[in-house]
Amino acid sequence: MFCPNCGATLSDDAQFCGVCGAKIENENGAQQPFVQPAQNNNAYVNNNMPDGAQFQGAANNAQNASESVKKAANNVKSAVGSAAANVKNFIVNNKKIAIICAAALAAVVAIIIIIVIIANAAQGPGAAIFDRNDHSVLAFDDGGDLLLYVDGKEIKNSLEYNGWSEPEYYYGCGVVRYNGGLYKIEGEKLREINDDVSSVYVSSNENAVAYVSDEDVYLYKDGKETKIYSIDGYLWTMAISPNGNVVAINARDDDGYVTYLSKGSKAQKFSDEYLVGIVSDDASVMYATAFDDESELYVIKNEKADDAERIKDNVGNLNCVSKDNKKILFTVSGNTYYYAPDVKDDEPIRVSKGSVTPLFPENTVKALDDFKSFVALDGGSIKLFSLNGDEFESETIVSSASNVSISLDGKTLVYTKSGDLYSVKASKNAEPVRLEKDIRSYDADATLTKIYISDDDSNLVFSDGRSKKTTKISSDVYDYAVSMDGVCCYIDDKDVLYTTSGASKGNKVDKMSNTESVYTSGGSIFTAINDDTLYISADGKTFTKTDYEY
């Protein structure tokens, strides 16, 4: 089954997601299936929403909690809402399996069980850890077989659609699970790793995969599959270290609840008291809850479970984790706290009396290098938080902001307020610049210097993100999508697809004169439905027809 919050594959009896920490239940006590449809990146303005409400259209936007949606036929609204496309397949957009720090997490979790994605550090406040997602699309062809495109190029395979299973692509590590099998992308082919796989967990460095096959737990790393645990009872959940060297297996067997620890070989019993949710590369730091009281958060140092130290009771959301899995930001009763193994007196530091959610660039990994300085939402305000000794200080950048985006370097913010679009530096005493009045939606490149705006008259307008001057690109635009590089594809009222970059008037895209909708996947790959057929483009200028027909 799948997590309704982040889409991770879980065992059928899992009660918590090992990726995002969400509790797995619904009104009937059963978990709903997850399918990631094609989505647009436009940030919609809803003036009826309370100040500070976050709603971004991008699948992996830092302000947007992952959304549980129904499979197969989806009516996907166009960017401005005036047109809709009947999408009969699904396309996986920008989905890394281990993204756990999406701002505004939908589920309030009673236990923290997570895996963190690691990448390279950006400059600027927050030292955000980021990595551009693989530019990939999954779809079905007209015969029902799976099609995988990477950077617009089809990956050859022979995976036949069975009518029940939907593909899951784990970005970064190039692993696909389909029809129960687990496959690795190698060149232009998919190589089978295992033909019967259920739960899948990917290390945050993306070089290792832990999974369940036929009641056994395996670790796949460096091209080698190793059986590390045989399930005697049922698997609760797993946690894997950033480099994949350590796997914590939480299970229930004849001895009751037990946690096992594997370091690349057969797992050894670790504890019958604590459920491990976060583990560092050397297992020197682990975060866990007690099996008999899941509201208590503990830290375990140097693999000494008997010396576990209680951090806090009544822990709710996990807001963020550091790249090494050793530092965390979490909430308790509406307050946000920071904890690291070296904090004074082992006492967590209160960051705010509100719920603080760090901001991350769109299509990037949601983790921090450290917590010395970072930009975050605190209620409806954007604030700059700084760790000064044993205390956190905060500076309000903007009050009552909605639809917030942050640039790839973490230095610039774009947001809406009372229906108008603004830009501001992510620093103290910064003065906002109003870019445009009365907007309906906006979308932008990774640097926030190429911003495309839909106004109330359905005009597409360009802004450089710095000045008050804007340039009208086209009238009567009902759908548009923007890549991380700032290329914009849009559709006019005659269903013709255009492409542009910057303030220039758009050029018609060849053979795309009956286009219903356009999207971006992975931040840079464009997908469009034209003449009831799926087209893909790696640059937003030349679209290639696929075998999939709607």
Task: Report a brief summary of the structure.
With 550 residues, this protein is mainly beta. Helices cover 0% and strands 46% of the residues. A 5-stranded antiparallel sheet has the order 1-38-39-40-41, with no helix packed on it. A 4-stranded antiparallel sheet has the order 9-10-11-12, with no helix packed on it.
What does this structure look like?
- With 550 residues, this protein is mainly β.
- It has no helices and 49 strands.
- Strands 1-38-39-40-41 form a five-stranded antiparallel β-sheet, with no helix packed on it. The chain has a four-stranded antiparallel β-sheet with strand order 9-10-11-12, with no helix packed on it. Strands 13-14-15-16 form a four-stranded antiparallel β-sheet, with no helix packed on it.
- Strand 47 and strand 48 form a beta hairpin.
- It is flat.
Radius of gyration: 23 Å
**What is the helix fraction of residues, given as a range?**
under 10%
Approximately how much beta-strand content do the residues carry? over 45%
Shape: flat
Q: Can you give the mean pLDDT? A: 75
Topology of helices and strands:
Layout lengths: L42 E2 L29 E4 L6 E4 L32 E2 L6 E3 L5 E5 L5 E5 L2 E3 L12 E3 L4 E4 L2 E6 L2 E6 L5 E3 L5 E6 L2 E6 L2 E7 L3 E7 L6 E7 L2 E7 L5 E4 L2 E6 L5 E6 L2 E9 L7 E4 L2 E7 L6 E5 L2 E5 L9 E4 L3 E3 L8 E2 L4 E6 L2 E8 L2 E8 L3 E5 L5 E6 L2 E6 L7 E4 L2 E6 L6 E5 L4 E4 L6 E5 L2 E6 L4 E6 L4 E5 L5 E2 L6 E7 L3 E6 L2 E5 L6 E6 L1
Antiparallel strand pairs: 1-38, 2-3, 4-5, 5-30, 6-7, 7-8, 9-10, 10-11, 11-12, 13-14, 14-15, 15-16, 17-18, 18-19, 19-20, 21-22, 22-23, 23-24, 25-26, 26-27, 27-28, 29-31, 31-32, 32-33, 34-35, 35-36, 36-37, 38-39, 39-40, 40-41, 42-43, 43-44, 44-45, 46-47, 47-48, 48-49
